[in-house]
Design a protein that fits this description.
Blueprint lengths: L4 H57 L13 H25 L1
């Protein structure tokens, strides 16, 4: 069923509005992601400072402190980093195989 000119214009307007909303949503999502990353960075910095205070105070009191984990990255973020590293290795392996 073919659309008449009036129907075509209505659908084009709807499509353009939907595209604008999609772009707006994407932009808002990126802003929120950036805010979350900044908040996480602030919290990690705060944790680092409190850890220094805690360890310094423990040292003055002669109290033994449990060592902090090797990595300060949250587990999910650490897994993502490991995955990226692995993918990079896989890509280089594929490139070497293609050259051979």
């Amino acid at each position: 069923m073919a659309l008449n000119k009036e129907q075509e214009e209505i659908y084009k307007k709807a499509m353009n509005e939907a595209k604008k909303e999609l772009d707006s949503a994407e932009s808002k999502m990126q802003e929120e992601i950036q805010k979350a990353r900044q908040k996480l960075a602030d919290l990690q910095e705060s944790k680092k400072h409190y850890r220094q205070i805690y360890e310094g105070t423990a040292l003055l009191l002669g109290v033994e402190v449990e060592p902090e984990e090797e990595s300060e990255l949250p587990q999910a973020e650490q897994a993502t980093e490991e995955k990226k590293e692995k993918e990079g290795e896989d890509d280089s392996d594929k490139a070497e195989a293609a050259q051979a």
